[in-house]
């Protein structure tokens, strides 16, 4: 009984673009646990007992929260399902502050990538172009590696394999268009013309594993390390950097700021503008802009 209800709930959420692979595995295990106790409705005691089987506090909290989400949905249709207390397992997910690259660090990474070996191979051109494209567009690395030659159009990049399965068009600055065109011209001869935009040393589509191996080399040779109290630089932090720089260029008027934020959210491929807020990190430039705006406000000008 619970298994069928779980599958229906997952199907409804997947229709909205969520993958939920871990949810499916864990909730089916919970359904089997409940069935072994002769239950076909969610019971708080059973949910707690099942979650306690997880190996770490974080896992117990996550597993329990998934049952709570399911229970809230099912309870609306059938009051026989109990809604477990959401905070039964204490703690909260900690999201480390992302590493925001300075313009100098971005240039350094691209320059180091352009000097990678093997000598005479396409690898340095591929890595430097990938990194330049990420800094210029804020694409997810998975989206960049999934690009095919037909996705590069005069109007921009057609992003097909997105996180939520939706397609979007990402306009490119003329300098970015030129750099990508130069790479495509360079790569056709040694790569033999496969459909993938970014290719490996053997001419096949560049995999994430291949990219990550080269990325770690670039990161080490560029000499970048974690800042005090922060995390080590990641490739995904390039996306955070793009969002932070976009926030720095927001217009002053409040109504235009809202439009700017919505445009950035759409450009990044987020399904909800609230998902974009996590990407907006403070930077020295942004804090200076805030200070200037506060000064104008206290002096009687427009906020």
From TrEMBL:
Residues 96-292 form the Tyr recombinase domain. PROSITE patterns: TYR_RECOMBINASE (PS51898). Pfam families: Phage_integrase. SUPFAM superfamilies: DNA breaking-rejoining enzymes (SSF56349). The keyword DNA-binding applies. GO terms for molecular function: DNA binding. Keywords: DNA recombination, DNA-binding. One of its GO terms (biological process) is DNA integration. Signal peptide: none annotated. Belongs to the 'phage' integrase family. This is Integrase. It comes from Eiseniibacteriota bacterium.
């Amino acid at each position: 009984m619970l298994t069928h209800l779980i599958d229906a709930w997952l199907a409804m959420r997947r229709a909205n673009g969520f993958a939920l692979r871990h949810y499916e595995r864990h909730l089916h295990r919970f359904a089997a646990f409940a069935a072994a106790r002769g239950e076909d409705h969610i019971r708080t005691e059973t949910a707690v007992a099942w979650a306690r089987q997880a190996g770490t506090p974080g896992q117990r909290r996550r597993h329990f929260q998934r049952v709570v989400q399911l229970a809230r949905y099912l309870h609306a249709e059938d009051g026989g399902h109990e809604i477990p207390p959401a905070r039964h397992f204490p703690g909260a997910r900690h999201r480390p502050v992302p590493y925001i690259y300075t313009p100098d660090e971005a240039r350094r990474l691209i320059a180091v990538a352009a000097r990678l070996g093997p000598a005479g191979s396409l690898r340095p051109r591929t890595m430097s172009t990938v990194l330049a494209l990420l800094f210029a567009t804020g694409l997810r690395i998975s989206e960049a590696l999934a690009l095919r030659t037909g996705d590069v159009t005069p109007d921009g990049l057609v992003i097909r394999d997105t996180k939520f399965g939706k397609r979007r068009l990402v306009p490119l600055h003329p300098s970015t268009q030129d750099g990508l065109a130069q790479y495509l011209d360079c790569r056709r001869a040694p790569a033999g013309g496969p459909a993938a935009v970014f290719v490996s040393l053997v001419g096949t589509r560049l995999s994430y594993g291949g990219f990550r191996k080269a990325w770690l080399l670039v990161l080490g040779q560029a000499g970048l390390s974690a800042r005090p109290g922060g995390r080590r630089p990641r490739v995904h932090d390039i996306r955070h950097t793009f969002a932070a720089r976009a926030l720095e260029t927001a217009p002053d008027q409040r109504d235009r700021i809202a439009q700017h934020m919505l445009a950035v959210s759409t450009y990044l491929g987020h399904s909800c503008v609230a998902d974009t807020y996590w990407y907006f990190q403070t930077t020295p430039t942004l804090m200076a802009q805030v200070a200037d705006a506060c000064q104008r406000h206290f002096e009687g000008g427009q906020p």
